[in-house]
Amino acid sequence: MTGWERTACVVRETHGHWIRQVTDALRSAGLGVVLISPPVTAEERVELAGLAEDVWVVQDVRDADAVAKTILDHTGGVAPAGVLTAAEGVIAATARVGELLGTARCPADVFVLAHNKFAVREMLAGAGLPGPRFAAIGDAAQAGAVAAEVGLPAIVKPVNGAASNLVRTVHTVGELVEAYRLLAERLPASPDARYHRPVEGRPGTRSIDPTTVFLVEGLLRGQEYAIDVLVRDGTAEPVELVGKPLIDERKFELGMCCPPLELTDERAKLITSAAVDAVRALGLDNTCAHVEVIDDELTGPTIVEVNGGRPVGGATAELLRLRTGVDMFAEMVSLALGTPPPQRDGATIPVPLGELILYPSGTGRLVRVHGLDELEELPEVISVVTTVTPGQWLSDEQEVYAVNVFVAGFGDHEELAALYADASRLIRFELEELP
């Protein structure tokens, strides 16, 4: 392969629906694509071959030096057009590769900080932005002191977690002790590599062991929203606000609405401004961020988390595309490579749209998803996107957007909830449990 200056390297860690979206966006921009991947099976290599011109294997894709060396060994020392990823666990390492190759558009240290939830809380508080009281807990014996500092009820979460993995709500000191012990037991055994490396933060601060130190935050009360923000050369552009009216006790998102129903323009502007302020406070530039906000009863729009370096996860980018005409992955590619912004089409469907998200129950390897044909026949359904494949390991403790149902024709949250109930009755995940 030649023309490395017109070829982008995409770093993958595991299976991800985003990979095809990014590679399609790169090809639409006239670029060649190479995938950087951990060791793959012969079957996986065949699957990935349809996404890129080549697959280059690196034992540990979090090792920036090794990834950069592999790229230069293949290109004869020529830097590619850029190196990018939308895999949460390797965004910071991929940015470091870009620094080594001279193609980085946003400093890697910014992403390092953005993926440390405790450091993010400190940065946002230092910038004067509203937020819950928070503290780190590193031992079950600290539960009483932490509860007194933060207040109860509270949320306990991994300091570098994603997809609502092992997020727990606690109402008493005893429940905080139990939550600490649960996370301390589960995370060391997690197959997710992010929990097996120290979590860095601000320069000069000590790293955190994510299997023993967790974040505790005061519980926010109010409606939750999400918004993606594009930042190009210091100018932040928020994309459409999304409401999250249906959330279960695990903090999993069951149904979303774009734009939010029953939200005044004044509140929408305040929520959007809070997201933009958070992105700026963290120093994100020439990249995108997915920001989650709760319009708290006391503090107003308050940041829940900032996911720097990637757009919204799962298939929700399709919700934004249908509603606004903005292709978030094409925008991400443009920002990562410094190419002109992609052309935007008008909204495909200008009425309020919803997304229903169906999760597997139980744990095991996926054999088949039943009921998809029946689901597509519901009159309110526009399309159905499945992001999981047979053989993939699934757990009902992980927020995997397995089946995404895009709907229209609802008038309020109750009707959206009724649609969710109809959809969930039709879908069944057949899982094969390991002995």
TrEMBL record:
InterPro entries named among the record's database cross-references: ATP-dep_AA_Ligase, ATP-grasp, LAL_C2
Keyword annotations: ATP-binding, Ligase, Nucleotide-binding
Domain ATP-grasp: 121-337
Source organism phylogeny: Bacteria, Bacillati, Actinomycetota, Actinomycetes, Pseudonocardiales
PANTHER family: ATP-GRASP ENZYME FSQD, FUMIPYRROLE BIOSYNTHESIS PROTEIN C
ATP-binding recorded as keyword: yes
Protein name per its UniProtKB record: ATP-grasp domain-containing protein
PROSITE patterns: ATP_GRASP
Molecular-function GO term, any one: ATP binding
Name of a matching Pfam family: ATP-grasp_4
Organism: Amycolatopsis marina
Keyword hit for Ligase: yes
